[in-house]
Write a structure and sequence with these properties.
The complex is a heterodimer. Chain A is of the alpha/beta class. Chain A has helices spanning 3-14, 28-42, 71-83, 97-102, 120-128; strands at 16-21, 46-51, 91-96, 114-117, 131-135. Chain A is globular, with a radius of gyration of 15 Å. The chains are: A alpha/beta, B alpha/beta.
Chain lengths: 137, 113
């Protein structure tokens, strides 16, 4: 990689924020993560979110009639994804596939825009984001 | 990677050790430090399966087999009523709390779970 492209990559990385969510969607840490993402996006930073553990519930549509206690949080996530779909600054939301499967979830439950991934996404965050915040109690 | 949670009561330490191995799998240098009740992750004779909880034994084996550096905080081991002989394998190296600060200071990134 040339020095120029390394510099561009570093500059791009410095503007990107990584956020790892681990607690369930009813938790204050989950809400904090979403608010942090919104604040960073409003300042023009790209944001990458990885949902892990019980946080994956906030990235899925669990009920058809809005009776799931996770629906409020997942609706906020859905709105955020829709607002930044195909636009800059970019918002990427990856989730842990094995955490999905452990909880009986699959791609069909995932909100539009959610990508099924794995822990390698966290490693990638540390590589490519200027800062990575892990909201793990 | 500082693991503070014990291998029972929650799946947190299981996930933390899984993440440590993910860093290794992605060829990123990683060191695991077992601190506080996290020191129990390397203790022998724990059978969380009796409460239908995932065992971290496979990660203990994998961390050693793949040569990922693992340290256990000596003072925390003692507070849990254990000695070095109570560890599942001697692969985990003892480290004092005072040395932990130096390790953190010399690390690029620190993840604590």
């Amino acid at each position: 990689m040339s020095l120029e492209s390394r510099t561009r990559a570093a500059e791009g990385a410095s503007g990107r924020l990584g956020i790892v969510l681990y607690t369930g969607p009813a938790s204050s840490l989950f809400a904090l993560g979403i608010e942090l993402a919104k604040a960073a996006l409003s300042k023009g930073h790209d944001v990458v979110i990885f949902a892990w553990g019980d946080a994956v519930y906030g990235t899925a549509r669990l009920s058809q009639d809005g009776t799931s206690s996770s629906d409020g949080a997942s609706s906020r996530v859905a709105d955020l994804l829709q607002a930044h779909s195909g636009r800059k600054p970019e918002l990427v939301l990856n989730v842990c596939t094995s955490c999905y499967k452990t909880r009986g979830l699959s791609q069909k439950h995932a909100l539009p825009g959610v990508r099924l991934g794995g822990l390698h996404n966290i490693v990638e965050m540390f590589r490519t984001c200027g800062r990575t915040v892990m909201l793990v109690p | 990677m500082i693991v503070r949670k014990p291998p029972f009561g929650s799946i947190d330490s299981w996930e933390a050790l899984r993440l440590a191995l993910s860093f290794y799998a992605e060829r990123e240098p990683v060191t695991v430090v077992l601190q506080g009740l996290g020191a129990l992750n390397w203790a022998s004779n724990l059978t969380p399966e009796t409460k239908s909880q995932e065992s971290v034994a496979r990660f203990v084996r994998d961390l050693e087999n793949f040569g990922v550096p693992v340290y256990v905080v000596l003072e925390d081991l003692k507070e849990a009523g254990l000695a070095l002989v109570d560890l599942a394998t001697p692969y985990a190296k003892p480290v004092r709390r005072s040395e932990l600060a130096r390790m953190v200071a010399s690390s690029g990134s620190v993840v604590a779970i």
